[in-house]
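Lab manual, section 2.4: Encoding a predicted structure.

Procedure: take the sequence of the chain (171 residues), apply the prediction step described in section 2.3, and record the output as structure tokens. A sample record is shown.
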Amino acid sequence: MKCPFCDDPNTQVTDTRENEDGDVVRRRRRCVKCDKRFTTYERIDLKMPHIVKRNGSRSEFDHRKLTASMQLALRKRPVTTEDVEAAVDRIEARLLSLGEPEVPSEKIGELVMKELKKLDKVAYIRFASVYRNFADVDEFAEVVREVQARPKRSRGSGPATPDPEHDLFGG
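Recorded output:
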């Protein structure tokens, strides 16, 4: 860190303290050359990638918009706010881990669908029907069949019994 008074690059840290939340570090420094003291602050600087929409336009990532779209799909479904927030956190962590400055909106849509599929099958179908913009009923029915697929039986177990809460068409 160079000295703001004489521009010398040689400074020493004389004191380091974190704030109460632990997200900011305050450092007192002394310039070796001019002996002046100054304070610096370190903060985490995580930058979410910009979103590249289907039409090619770009926009900043918006946590509230992501949360609102998931809540809309989950409207009147038995999923807690904490579960929604945890899903949004996982999506954001995944986007950050990509390390890309820009991410196509399709990638975010796929991440949302993956999380919704784990949270609630009905919400997943709601979101998929809008997000994928189905051209016909057959495409919609394919997604319904996908979530209706029964898990494979393990050896020695009896027949898989359907879960009536998730068996969308009673079949």
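Check your result against the sample. The chain has two domains: 11-43, 50-148.
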